[in-house]
Amino acid sequence: MIAEIGHFSLVLAFTLALVQFAVPLAGTRLGDARLMAVASPVTLVGFALVALSFATLITAYVQSDFSVLNVWENSHSAKPMLYKVTGVWGNHEGSMILWVFILTFFGALVAMFGRNLPDTLRANVLSIQGLVGAAFLLFILATSNPFARLTPAPMEGRDLNPVLQDIGLAVHPPMLYLGYVGFSVCFSFAAAALIEGRIDAAWARWVRPWTLAAWIFLTGGIAMGSYWAYYELGWGGWWFWDPVENASFMPWLSGTALLHSAIVMEKRSALKIWTLLLAILTFSLSLMGTFLVRSGVLTSVHAFATDPARGVFILVLLILFIGGSLALFAVRASSLTAGGLFHPISREGSLVLNNLFLTTATATVLLGTLYPMLVEAVSGEKISVGAPFFNLTFIPLAVPLLLAVPFGPLLAWKRGDLYAVAQRLFFAFGGALLVMLIGYFFVDGTGVLAAFGMGLAAWLMLGAMTDLALKAGVGGVSGSVAWRRFRGLPRSVFGTALAHFGLGVTVLGIATVTSLDVEEVTVMRPGDTLPVAGYALKFEDIAPYRGPNFTEDRARFTYFDAAGRPKGEIISSKRVYTARQMPTTEAGIATRGFSQLYVSLGDVAPDGGLVVRVWWKPLVLLIWLGGVVMMAGGVISLLDRRLRVGAPARRKTKAVPAGVAAE
């Protein structure tokens, strides 16, 4: 009965989503306040219904109700409780419920916290959110019903894909979806502005917190996904330019550009049209990621690769939302003014440069991701575009962008002095140069490019620290005055500096591990010792082990430092999940500071030995620690009072009509 309740809740939610779309939109067209007032309560009830449906699916998994087809295909009674819950979104149907749940959650947040928005803008935003929700609820009901029954009910389930039975699945997909779907609010604000034909700085102030929140979650989702692939798949790598990885990276790049563009629009009433376009394109790229994962057009360890008919349905939705919004943009954009003017050498100019590099990089990744599919569709020939293409095209765009990052926060609005800023960054440049020279001359194995990467990382981190120091008046006032100024700086200033510092931390991790990692592949037997990067790894023994729903052969290693002192133990295994008879490799990892010793088991050699792959990954944890620092910077910025207060109250809000410049 509980499955039927979940299914019926989705049907009701779909009906209310149609009401949420049509009635408030009609109210804005007719100027009827009563119709516009329908938007908020309908949105909240729709969210409650989707939440009820999601809760019923979780209950079916927890109770191991194998009469539900989705539960039977993706669960097992012996599976640990954590993976019973995370298995809800470890499949296509359940992940779509999570997608819509987060979508309606964001709509409910707009309804609850958007009370000081102009009535027409709030109604139009919730109307567009309702349209998106209705489309994906229809997709679930028509092609991906998670509550379909099995008769008779099997005694046992098929279990979840073993690769997904990991704590990372509890964090990665929800965070990624919070980022993906969070940009739907920006999209709805953009569409609402185009429908009304007006846009102003208050609009940008309302969009920026939603953009920042989505960016924070997407940053965390990508970082968590990268780390999950690193330790779970046993490949020893942290990024593979996999098409689905790219599908999450592209909206992050364009979302970063949108975030910076919204700042310019709020502060200087400039880049209005560009900000609207970025809001549309960012959510469009999020939808494209949904299409790539679920269409079956590509094969990936991340992709569900299910019925292509679902891909056709999502393709229609892509045409509806992307094509429709771009058509609306083409019709309305000419009636919107671009806003204030500024000098190329200014903070606005630096943010425009940032946008140009980010959008070009996004286009490069998009081309490399879609080109093989386009070639196959036209000629039937299968080709692949791998890391060499992306490294040769993306890195040359990323490097000048990273070099320019410290300049932006130090430039003045409207007109800046580039030479004066360069002088202020003298110590940051000197520190970066010193790091580069130390890396090149004193760190074994460091080449020119690796030393440059270390210096670039130091440039970003020292540049962020310089920004805070200068704004606090360090060097120009007494220490006590500088401390008071430092404590009084807006939280958005701290957040920006911390995000840029985190970017430098990630760059340092990438530069170091890419150039200095050590890999050894050999055949070992119990008692053998392998020297790796100043450590000695000893193969102690291998023994069978039985888990709740798997069996495995566990290999135990100990490792010693250069003086022969034992430093710890590493357990690596080859595992077989009994229900699916699917093998996995469970890597063993020992962490030393920010570096890791990574051990992965291969096949049994013909002579009876065991193939062992060992990596020394120097400073590899900085890659993901930088992502955490960037998220922290975003959270601190989000706590800035100016963003929490939001736009002025309705009685003070004065929108700028189309065709009137907002100088």
Write a concise synopsis of the structure shown.
With 663 residues, the protein is of the alpha+beta class.
Task: Looking at this protein, list some descriptive labels.
663 residues, 21 helices, disordered C terminus, 62% helix, five-stranded antiparallel β-sheet
Task: Describe the 3D structure.
The chain is of the alpha+beta class. The protein has 21 helices and nine strands. It has a five-stranded antiparallel beta sheet, with no helix packed on it. Helix 16 runs antiparallel to helix 17. The relative contact order is 0.09.
Could you outline the blueprint of secondary structure elements for this entry?
Layout: H1 2-30, H2 33-37, H3 39-62, H4 69-74, H5 81-86, H6 92-113, H7 119-143, H8 168-196, H9 201-232, H10 243-268, H11 272-294, H12 308-332, H13 347-379, H14 387-404, H15 418-424, H16 426-442, H17 448-472, H18 479-488, H19 491-516, E1 518-524, E2 529-532, E3 535-546, E4 550-560, E5 566-577, E6 582-586, E7 588-592, E8 595-604, E9 610-617, H20 621-638, H21 641-645
Antiparallel strand pairs: 1-9, 2-3, 3-4, 4-5, 5-6, 7-8, 8-9
Helix pairs in contact: 1-3, 1-7, 3-6, 6-7, 6-8, 7-8, 7-12, 8-9, 8-11, 9-10, 9-20, 10-11, 10-13, 11-12, 13-14, 16-17, 17-18, 17-19, 19-20
Q: What share of residues are in beta strands?
A: 5-15%
Regions with little confidence, pLDDT below 50 for 5+ residues: 645-663
Q: Determine the number of helices (DSSP H or I, runs of at least 4 residues).
A: 21
Can you give the helix content as a percent range? 55-70%
Identify the overall geometry.
Answer: globular
Our measurement of the CA-to-CA distance between the termini, rounded to an integer number of angstroms, reads 61 Å
Count of individual beta strands: 9
Main pleated-sheet profile: 5 strands, antiparallel
Strand order of the largest sheet: 2-3-4-5-6
Query: From the alpha-carbon coordinates, what is the Rg to the nearest angstrom?
Result: 27 Å
SSE string, helices as H and strands as E? HHHHHHHHHHHHHHHHHHHEEEEEEEEEHH
Q: What structural class should be given to the helix and strand makeup? A: alpha+beta
Mean pLDDT: 88
